[in-house]
Amino acid sequence: MIWLWLLLQALTLIGVLNYWWHLPRGRKEEAPDGTVVILCVRDDWDGGPGLMARLWAQSAPFRLILATSGNCPAAVALAGEGVQVVSAGVATEEGQKVHKLRAALGALRPEDRWLVFIDADIEPSARLIGRLLFPLVRGKADMSTGYRLLLPEAGVLAALVGAVEMQLATLPRFASATMPWGGAMAIARDVADRLDLDSVLAGRLSDDMAIGLAGWRAKLRLRPVRDLLVASPLSGDARSLIGFGVRQYRHIFTNSVGMWALATGVVAVQSAGWLWALGLGGCPAVAIGYGAAWGRALVRRRIVGAVVEPEQAVKARRSLMWDVAAPFLVTWAHLAVQVAAATSNRIRWGDWDHRVEKGRVVQMERSG
Asked: Which of 206, 210, 219, 272 has the most CB atoms around it within 10 Å of its CB?
């Protein structure tokens, strides 16, 4: 058993090292004409001064579409040259974000050739758009994606959620075994038209899962841009933090049970291994587990420092303390979130409760 445990821990360390070894060094960018950035915002959005400053500092030129439900004064105030505001109205049979995305797609112009999708809660570097566009413009991919890097505020629970997400963020990202992340994703316009993106999204709750699964079925080439771990602040009370983690996996569970089962099985094996190590494995097994965890933490520390700004890296590294102090709790928390996700097909997102079957919204009502 000790040799199986040693092999398992070695594989987890090799996986994180693989991510580090394959970080692009040149990080080339493209800045083509005809780029449009689509950003969905809530009606109570404050105008995102921090986000907008980062967007205007991008190395690639773009036109911005702000998709709203229809009553966002901050978005209207930004309307003008280079900024188009689209009103989607209130969704009744699909997620509100998906509803806004479909409205934005309907507002595209003939000259819009490259579509970039971002979330309102990210802190992107100035190279985000140029890096996402590089594999598309060079003909190396049909879609490209980054991934979130959570920046937990003070608090042990936020850091634990960040540690769980860090496990996912630093997995080896093979194009044939990954999904796009809607917070930083790009697709060529002709590919979006060929995919019929509006129909793909219709009736759905999760935009990135719907697009990713449709891309798999169409055999599109998805390129994960490894150096685009995009900073995303994380804060809130215990309920919202736990809810965030469960919701991410419930999106997977309600779209693809097989994908959820595979991910849960991998974490379950690691969780069972830690139970054995702490209970029957003795000091050698515990030493192997901690040694691999500390090795992963050191590599992740280097990855984080290489892909985000120094101030962001300081916050992101708070999550690594869990890998150093209690790596078994990170694994068990990860498994608990996955299992909790499978207990219901109801997803609360924004002001709505949705019941989802096979990725489609079959019932929705305002949350109380």
From this structure: 206
Q: Measuring CA to CA, how many Å separate 187 from each of 181, 192, 326? A: 12, 7, 40
Crossing angle of the two packed helices 156-169 and 327-341, in degrees rounded to 10: 80
Give the closest residue to 233 by CA, choosing from 128, 163, 321, 153. Answer: 153
Number of H helices, E strands in the chain: 15, 10
DSSP state at residue 48? -
Q: Is 223 left (phi over 0), alpha (psi -120 to 50) or beta?
A: beta
Tell me the pLDDT tens digit for each residue of 208-262: 999 999 999 999 999 999 999 999 999 888 899 999 999 999 999 999 999 999 9
Task: State how far Cα 178 lies from the chain centre.
Answer: 11
3-state secondary structure of 35: strand
Segment 8-25 shows an average pLDDT of 94
Residue 333 and residue 271: Cα distance in Å, rounded? 9
Distance (Å) of CA 190 to CA 34, 40, 187, 215, 289: 12, 22, 9, 13, 48
Domains and CATH numbers, the chain: 21-258+341-366 (3.90.550.10)
CB 32 within 8 A of CB 114: yes
What is the spatial distance between Cα 127 and Cα 133, in angstroms, rounded to a whole number? 10
| 211 in Cβ contact with 145 (< 8 Å) | no
DSSP, residue by residue, 296-360? HHHHHHHHHHHHS-HHHHHHHGGGHHHHHH-HHHHHHHHHHHHHHHTT-SEEEETTEEEEEETTE
pTM: 0.94
